[in-house]
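## tool: complex_structure
## caller: assistant
## args:
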Amino acid sequence: MTTLEDVAKHAGVSLATASRVLNGSSRHVGADMRRRVESAAARLGYRVDATAQTLARGASNVVGLVIQDLIDPYFSLIADGAIRAADRHGMVTTLGTTYRDPEREIALVATLHAQRARVVLLAGSRVADEAVLRRQRAELDVYRSAGGRVAVIGQDVLGTDTVAPRNREGAYDLAVALAGLGHRRFAVLAGPPVLLTAIDRTRGFSEALADLGLPPPLLVHGDFDRDGGRDAACRLMAMDHGVTCVFAVNDLMATGALAALREYGVQVPRDLSLAGFDGTSYLRDPVPSLATVRLPLARMGAMALDLALTDEDAPRRQHVSGEVVLRDSVGPPAWASSAAYAPSAPVEPANPSAASPEARPARP
Amino acid sequence: MTTLEDVAKHAGVSLATASRVLNGSSRHVGADMRRRVESAAARLGYRVDATAQTLARGASNVVGLVIQDLIDPYFSLIADGAIRAADRHGMVTTLGTTYRDPEREIALVATLHAQRARVVLLAGSRVADEAVLRRQRAELDVYRSAGGRVAVIGQDVLGTDTVAPRNREGAYDLAVALAGLGHRRFAVLAGPPVLLTAIDRTRGFSEALADLGLPPPLLVHGDFDRDGGRDAACRLMAMDHGVTCVFAVNDLMATGALAALREYGVQVPRDLSLAGFDGTSYLRDPVPSLATVRLPLARMGAMALDLALTDEDAPRRQHVSGEVVLRDSVGPPAWASSAAYAPSAPVEPANPSAASPEARPARP
DNA sequence: CTGTTAGCGCATTCAT
DNA sequence: ATGAATGCGCTAACAG
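## result:
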């Protein structure tokens, strides 16, 4: 293993000089010495020891990223954005996965603290459990008191810098758009009752319906993933109701729900409209393509890092809005299509020259 | 920031003792001292400095993982498997993304070397470019000569431990299964001509057709991602041919091809059968669900780490096989369905009690 | 502009 | 079983 000292010796210069040309900031080094050092380093295959640098400088170049599930496109998009941003800053990213266990999140913060990560990014919904939140805050506090910076992508409940998606507003807008298609009776596949993201989206959706003078939605809880959506949809099918439109609080659940509906022989959107939330791009591909509220996920990852890297005293909050994207999975209710009310064709025509089934603009 | 020395002082013991109880291996420490150290550490919120440990021990606990694109499920599945395995070994994972640029892969190895990663995992297709391979080998050599361990998930062309998917064989088996449905004229959306993975899969497919006495497939090259598949399918549509079955050399391309075919009004599988390769689970959800060759991606990530962690002198190779999974996107050719030849129903019935559209077993 | 030196936090001999 | 001392590779004063 080649060290700086080896390079210095081979170049016939001092340790300090070698350090200055290879890793130093100010370049007060003569041209010839510089060349000698550089050639010696190349010849010996010298690679800095970043851990030694961290120790000597008292600051590392690693960003710790904590997500819940790498397989979920929601998180892989955020992670991609964060990793690219870290790369732009010349930093490397250490990735930890909680598998949706809040306790693991705490353990990972401790691990990343041990790694001397310069910043820790926490992505994913916070929970409505004060005991958990207290333990999370405690671990973050010891990390921050050691100089660590923290940013959360999610709800602002930990006293950190936060990139906060406007879940309530996005769901509200979505409900308005769906009601605009003629729907009056809705169901919400509402996710787990403790997840703040699920709660906020459900609430926003319900508030819109209330404001429009429509009956409150039928709520069906379940897991926050594909199978949760599948199960919730199955339970919905087993109930007696007049629902014509279903809102799954995230895209994964919507995907599962779509599969379930297909198995039940329910035609989407003819028999039932279906929409999700997040805007993970895979939603273009199922048939029918799924309506959603699109969040700028990759950008949110980058924003979180930038937030954490520009230090301020008081924690800051940055909101990001979602954009309602109506696609083939939503259309007017069946009772409307035979009546005078028929705002637009529910399905795009097959057309070779058209772009891939991206988005139809939301109608207000 | 609390150091071991602080803990030692507060506990009234020596640095060495504190080190032994908190991070040491052998536990030759009295019970009372142990308790005092532990309580002091807890009280002060002590967290080890892993970078200092790395320096002192001369060995780190980070595994460096290099993938091409985190958004591609192929890589997020591998990464998930590798991260879980690293976690089991008490190691953390630093993730780098090349965006399919071989030069960036080299740079990332250097970065991870600087980070003093104990092992580096390289996932993704190698390229058929001797100049690139030489530079990659050179960088890996300096890393290994410094004590680093390397494993590759892909082709065994870098002289490293390797987890090698049987791409040729998987494509061969797929071709046999598709020919068994009655197809005689095939096209292959063959990906970039320099990607070994694309080459191997194309070759295996072609070999099977030759062995069966069928004409060679029509080859259409393009990028290795969704849009590449989309474009290739469009170009295929513009050609005059008697193709009844299309093989896209990875799932992403198959997904894009499916979208393109839909735009052209081509019914799958009635007008054209379509299959992919990789077995990323999202393929269950598009309609029709896509046939593929399923690789145990998460397990491959874990295998690579285990391989790199158990040191041997000679580089080893572990092959993994893919499993042909026929789904709704493949069926007998149109000319066969009206004739005597009709091996099975091409589409599963809509059935509420059935499982999600997983797999039909491959027919030999 | 260049060289000398003192730590950074910890593991680990080596004594005791 | 415990403590004192050395060094891991590097940066950053400080001195020339």
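## assistant note: Chain A has three domains: 4-48, 60-165+298-319, 167-294+322-354. Residues 3-5, 15-16, 19-20, 23-24, 48-49, 51-58 of chain A lie near DNA strand D (CB under 10 Å from a C1'). Handing back to user.
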